[in-house]
Amino acid sequence: MEGSTTWFANIQGLRNLMGVLSDAHNAGMLIVPHLTWQTRASTPIFLLLLFS
What we know:
By secondary structure, the protein is mostly helical. Helices cover about 70% and strands about 0% of the residues.
């Protein structure tokens, strides 16, 4: 039922999940420029991912 404790707990869980996805997206956007091979950090990042 809308407005119950369980309903509010589900809404809070959804908000937490949206926050985690937003944080993951922002962290991923920091790496994207290095995936185009246009920066000096591209090769070390590639090798780190390849051998880890």
